[in-house]
TrEMBL record:
Pfam families: Catalase, Catalase-rel. It comes from the Bacteria. Residues 225-257 are annotated as: Disordered. Keywords: Heme, Hydrogen peroxide, Iron, Metal-binding, Oxidoreductase, Peroxidase. Its cofactor is heme. InterPro entries: Catalase, Catalase_core, Catalase_haem_BS, Catalase_immune_responsive, Catalase_sf. This is catalase. Gene3D superfamilies: Catalase core domain (2.40.180.10). GO terms for molecular function: catalase activity; heme binding; metal ion binding. One of its GO terms (cellular component) is cytoplasm. Its EC number is 1.11.1.6. GO terms for biological process: hydrogen peroxide catabolic process; response to hydrogen peroxide.
Amino acid sequence: MSQAPESMHMLVNLFSPRGIPADYRHQQGFGVDTYKWVDAQGETRLVNYHWLPTCGVASMTEADAAAVQADDLGPASKDLFDAIERGEYPEWELHVQMMDDHDHPELDFDPPDDTKVWPEEVFPPRKVGTLQLNRNVANNFAENEQISFGTGVLVDGLDFSDDKMLVGRTFSYSDTQRYRVGPNCLQLPVNAPRNGPPATNQRDGQMTYVVDTGGENPHVNYEPSAMGGLTEADYPHPDEQGPKLTGRLTRARPPRTNDYAQAGERFLLMQDWERDDLVGNLVANIGEATDEVRRRMVWHLFLCEDELGRRVGEGLGITADDVRDLTPLETQTLDDGERKRLENLGANGPRDVEGHTMTHCVPNEHRRVPG
């Protein structure tokens, strides 16, 4: 991670108690990838998805989690099962953030960048639905282990953005499910559409048990065909959609990386007990690395936020002066603000987070577990 500054935001979140939810019922969900919504006229909006538990958010420290694992290896699954059996059905509200589908030069990051979140005071989350789990599965293998989630399984009106990781996941998830569950995984009841028969033109292969037909010739498994086979449905929107783009295709880092700002802002927006646990976890883990890695990580953390760099540095015996001679990585391009922070390493003062709302920065109950 010392060679991947874009990971700083993820590390600050993951190594804090947010990385150890107390159980599934008190866990938030975040889609990470940026999707796109398309209306009947071909107008598009970029979209981020969020699941918010109605019972609130609760997390544990590393010490709490260690105490739990000393006695139970599956507490979250057991808690979820038992709650549903008691009739305490867990619920999550689905919220979406939306923005116009263009580059947004007013932002200091690229909207489809998976290492960033969208400021909620600018792009407020809107509630669009609620998910309730009101029964446990009758057969764990059929209804749970054979579920084949995939980012490429979309309904009309949902589409892909220019999110690079989403493109890769769309291929890899489908390949994984075909290998793990089987080539006909989408025929299984747990994966098939509930409001209409599937029409995929997929035929045969291991464990096939249905031919998706809609009155066409069942002996024709290709399209287009003059023999009465399946035909592709009409799209509900025009072929052309979204903004007009001009330019050259390149292999390059995004011009607006800004790898440190959101990591520092998240640290400042945490509760005190979250910050304390984050610092302790970073010190413990970075302390296992070589001196070169330790110094580089403290350098990164000072660029994120003075207090974060100072506190982790104190735990490792490294000060801002000890890393001031380090230069940016060869793969890094610092913007003007980052270069200014580098010139004043350790003496920039706290970032301004007044009125700022970040994804997952909500009240977090500390689930204490006696050790």
